[in-house]
Amino acid sequence: MSQMLKKYSKRGNWLMLVLLIGIHAGAQSPAGPYKLSINLDIPIAANSLTLLGTSYLIGIARPIPNPESLNTLNRTDVIKFDRGATYQNSKACAYISDAALFASTGLPLLQLISKNSRKDFGTVAAISAETFTLNLAITNLFKETVRRKRPLLYNPDIPVEKKYKKDNFKSFFSGHTSTVACMSYSFAEMYAAYNPKSKLKPMVWSLSAVFPLVTGILRYKAGKHYWTDVITGYIAGAICGLAVPYLHRNSLGFNR
Question: Considering 52, 111, 182, 250, which has the largest number of Cβ atoms within 10 A of its Cβ?
Answer without folding.
Answer: 182
